[in-house]
Design a protein that fits this description.
- The complex is a heterodimer.
- By secondary structure, chain A is mainly alpha-helical.
- Chain A has a single domain, classed as Alpha Horseshoe (Serine Threonine Protein Phosphatase 5, Tetratricopeptide repeat).
- Helix content of chain A is 48%, strand content 4%.
- Chain A is built from 17 helices and four strands.
- In chain A, the strands form two sheets. In chain A, strands 1-2 form a two-stranded antiparallel sheet.
- The radius of gyration of chain A is 25 Å and the shape is globular.
- By secondary structure, chain B is mostly helical.
- Classes of the chains: A mainly alpha, B mainly alpha.
- The interface between A and B is large, with 41 and 36 residues.
Chain lengths: 462, 69
């Protein structure tokens, strides 16, 4: 009888082994993370920091993203693009709008890593722990700032509009809805201030208090808090004064090494393959000539040091494309912030100070000698919806010249009225429409998260 | 007795094969029309006025680069 039981036992064992594993992939390690020490958690950050050095498009941006941002805007004349070279880079923003869904997802992946560190690193007091936590806050704050600029409407006074989902804890099952713009700004601000409070000291983590103050100036400037923007811009300018002459040309001429008053810069460790890849992108984009509207801003010609640095006689851009934070941007934030807070004398003084460092034998502007607003220019209104004045126009023109090929102009257009404009390609007209300045949230998120609101203009899918 | 054993084995095999696949369809099906892109407005043909604008751009550009040589 004994030997009759054996097959039944085997069958029972086999059955129990097979049916017990139906949910083996659903086990979630609630409250359990593998890393324990700050050193171990820092591995999550080093991945992203390394990406910044080699070029990434989520946190700081890279050479390619700076080039593409210029392609979306009006510094280069899209309608004069030669083909077939023009097929290898975007004609206008519409060519890459759908790819921005990936940018959104990638940004939240970075935020997830920061959330894991901030939520689960128990060690809080050691120097390494402070550096790691500070950097996690810094990167998360920058990510929310980037999401605010790309996936939300411009901040024109009303901050009750849609922000992005604010996610501050690691939870795989959470399906957060969009916050308000005010809440998104608050999160970015809080993270940046937290990063400063940790006093990051190890250069490896690079988001020290100067970098974060620069980002706070950017955040406040974008969100219309001009008093705070000018305060932080001044602090950075005190620490990193404006430079001129040879120091300036060396700074802009150095494609990889961070020089001069650049506070933070990406793509500082490029291998041969990456150099070739970025070189290819620049080479293709340089086929698109600099627009007349930009070229004509250099009224002083060769006396303006930026003139020959920016483009050659064929109006092909020659300036190195950068994704960086540097003092000149702070000076321009200062000038415009003073303008918006009613300190016109201070604003004029700030723009003159920059011009004196860039233009040989520069004659200062006075309120009376400011050039008139170009009525044919794309930007017709300022960030508050008011018509441009000669003073603000002068500040914007300096900004356009100074930050050419640094991916700034696209956001200037967005911040100042989102003008519509078109480019031609092979007999067809492609229009950058007002809604395109605000990128679409991913289709997957919209379908999976009930109540998640898409930005206007993105209704039909395929 | 043999018959009982064979019946038992057959029943066991049937149980194993049916129990183990109770969640075989865990992944949601991919629809044929699975959307990945938003549809943007189509470009339109250039009008005579648009072509005049482009010609003016080309003229200005050609003159600018020839005068700077």
């Amino acid at each position: 009888m004994k030997h009759y039981r054996l097959p039944y036992i085997i069958i029972a064992c086999a059955a129990s082994m097979v049916c017990s594993c139906t949910k083996y992939l659903d086990i979630k390690p609630y409250g359990e993370t593998t890393p324990k020490t700050a050193e171990e958690f820092s591995a999550l950050l080093h991945y992203h920091l390394n990406s910044i050095d080699h070029g990434e498009q989520t946190i700081l941006g890279d050479i390619a993203s700076a080039c593409y941002l210029e392609c979306y805007a009006d510094n280069l004349e899209a309608s004069l693009t030669p083909y077939p070279a023009g097929n290898y880079f975007p004609l206008y923003i519409g060519d890459q709008l759908n790819r921005k869904q990936t940018l959104y997802a990638n940004t939240y992946s970075v935020i997830r890593d920061c959330n894991i560190i901030i939520g689960y690193l128990e060690e809080r007091e050691s120097r390494t722990a402070k550096d790691v936590l500070g950097t996690a806050h810094a990167i998360r704050g920058i990510c929310y700032y980037n999401l605010l600029r790309d996936f939300c409407e411009p901040c024109t006074g009303n901050l009750d509009g849609y922000g992005v989902p604010v996610v501050t804890e690691f939870d795989m099952e959470a399906k957060p809805l969009r916050s308000t713009m005010a809440k998104t700004i608050e999160q970015a601000e809080s993270d940046m201030l937290s990063a400063i409070s940790y006093g990051i000291s190890d250069e490896v983590y690079r988001f020290n208090s100067d970098v974060m103050k620069g980002y706070l100036a950017r955040l406040y400037f974008w969100s219309g808090n001009y008093t705070k923007a000018s305060g932080y811009a001044r602090e950075i300018l005190d620490a990193y004064p404006l430079i001129s002459g040879t120091s300036y040309t060396e700074m802009l001429g150095s494609e990889v090494t961070r020089k001069g008053n650049i506070i933070i810069k990406s793509c500082t460790v490029l291998d041969t393959g990456e150099m070739t890849s970025y070189g290819g992108t620049k080479s293709y984009v340089s086929n698109r000539p600099v627009s007349r509207s930009l070229a004509e801003l250099f009224a002083e010609g060769e006396r303006d040091i930026r003139y020959r640095l920016s483009f050659d006689r064929k109006r092909k851009f020659t300036k190195n494309a950068f994704a960086c934070l540097r003092s000149a941007e702070m000076q321009l934030i200062l000038a415009e912030s003073l303008y918006h807070t009613g300190d016109y004398t201070g604003a004029l003084s700030a723009v003159n100070e920059l011009r004196r460092l860039r233009i040989t034998d520069c004659v200062d502007y006075t309120m009376e000698t400011l050039p008139p607003v170009d009525t044919d220019g794309l930007i017709k209104e300022d960030a508050k919806g008011n018509p441009l004045t000669p003073l603000l126009y002068a500040i914007m023109c300096e900004r356009r010249k100074e930050l050419f090929m640094e991916g700034d102009r696209w956001y200037e257009l967005k911040r100042n009225g989102r003008p519509e404009f078109w480019a031609a390609k092979q007999g067809r007209k492609y229009t950058t429409m007002r809604f395109m300045y605000t990128f679409p949230l991913p289709i997957n998120d919209i379908e999976l998260v009930e109540g998640l609101v898409q930005n206007p203009g993105y209704t039909q899918t395929r | 007795m043999k018959r009982t054993i064979y019946t038992g084995i057959a029943a066991g095999i049937a149980a194993i094969t049916s129990i183990s696949c109770n969640s075989a369809d865990e992944l949601p099906p991919l629809n044929e029309g699975y959307a990945t892109e938003y549809i943007l407005p189509d470009p339109v043909d250039l009008t005579a006025e648009d072509r005049a604008v482009i010609e003016a751009l080309e003229k200005e550009y050609n003159e600018a680069i020839s005068s700077s040589n």
